[in-house]
Amino acid sequence: MLFYLILFSSTFFSIFHLLSSYKFRDRKALYPVRQKGMSILVPCYNEAPILKYTVEGLLNVEYDDLEVIFINDGSRDNTFNVLHELLDLQHWDTDIEGPLPNKVRGLYKSGKYPFINVIDKYNSGKADSLNIGVLYAKKELIVTMDGDCVLEKNALINMNIAFDDEDVIASGGVIHIMQMFKLDSKPGIVIMMQGLDYIKGFYIYKASLAYNDALSIISGAFGVFRRNIIIKIGGFKEGLGEDIDITLRLQEYAKKHNKKVVYTRNAVCYTECPESLRELIRQRVRWQKGFISAVLNNSSFLFKNVLNNNLSFMIIADALLSNSFATIVFIINVVLVLMKMIYGFPLKQFIYYLTTIIFNIFYSVIAIKGAKKDTPSLKAGPLYLMIIFDMAFFQFLRILFFLEGVVTYYFNNEYWYKVMRTNNCYKV
Prior knowledge:
Helices cover 53% and strands 15% of the residues. With 428 residues, it is α/β, with parallel strands linked by helices.
C-alpha cells in the first residue's frame, strides 16, 4: 500500500506542476515604469578565464540606473589582474566613513566605465563577499550574479517591472546554459542533458512554485532583492546553499509582513555549466548538500508551517518526502523490472511504465516549447532528441546526486566545490 501511495504522490506532484506552470504569467507593464536603481554584485573566485565575457555582457545590458561591483574573493589565479586590465582600475573613494572592513584589501573604480567598481578582499566565502557588496552598494535593488554569467540585454528592464509592486521583496530569473547559446560549436551530450534539465526546471517546476507562492530558491546566478530587506534579515549566511537559505528566510519574512517573493520568467541569464560528467556530479552533489543544509537551518519555520504555508508544504511534501521516497521506489522498481523480465511482466505494471514514459515525454516537450517561445534563439531540435537520453540515463544520475549528496552531507557539510572554468570563446 505504501509503495503505491508513494507512486501516486510522485505522479500527482508532476501533473500538478505541469498544470500550474500553464497558469503562470509574467507581470506586464501597463504604463511606463520608473527604473529603480540596481547594484549588480558579482563575487569572483578564480574566474579569470571567463571575466571578459561577463564584463562584455554587463556593457550590453539595457538599463540606465545601474552600478556594478565585482568582489574578488582572494582568488588564487589572476582574476584581479584580469579585472585591472579590462576595467583600468583606479582608487575608489566611497562616501562610507571609517576604516575598511578587515577582510577588504582595497577599493577600486573603473577608469573606462564609471558605473563599475571592484572590491579586492581576502578569501572568506561567497556569502561574506555578497554582504560586503551590499555594504558598499548604493542602489535600492541588489542583483546577485555569478562570475561566469551573462545577462540578456533586457533582463533588468523586465525585472524592474516586477518591483513596481512595492510588496515584492525578491525575484528570480531564468538561467540558461551558456554553451548552448553563445558558442558556434555543437554542445556535447553532458551539456545538452543539463540544458534540458534547466529548461524543465525553470519553465515548469519554478513557474509552478511561483504561481503557488512557494518559490524555494532564487538562483545565486541571477536574483534581485530589495537591499533594505536583505539587511533586515541579517544578510547572506555562509554555507553550501546560500541562495536557498536566503530565499527561505525571505519567504519567512514575506509571510510575517505580507510581502511577496516572485519569479520573472522573461528575465534571462546565461551561465557556464560543467562540461564533464565528473564535474557535473560534483556540482549537483553540492547542490543536494546545500538543499539539506538550508532545510535544516530553516526547519523551525518550515515544519511549523507545513499545513498553513504553500512553501513549507511543497518543501516537505514534494521536494523532501515525495522526491526522496520516489527515488527509493525507483530503485526498487528497477530491480523488480529486471526480475520480472525473467519471470514475466504483469500487464498492469507495463501499462503504468508506458504511461509514465509518455507523460515524461509530454512534460519535456511542453517545457522545450515554452523555452523556445520566450528565447527564440534556442535550438530546440537537439533537445527533443535528448528527451529519451534524459529518461534512460540522466534519471539515474539524479538518483546518484541525491544519494551521494545525502550520504556525504553527514561526513562533510562544509566543503564548497567550485566547478572549473573552461577556456571557451563565447559570442556575447
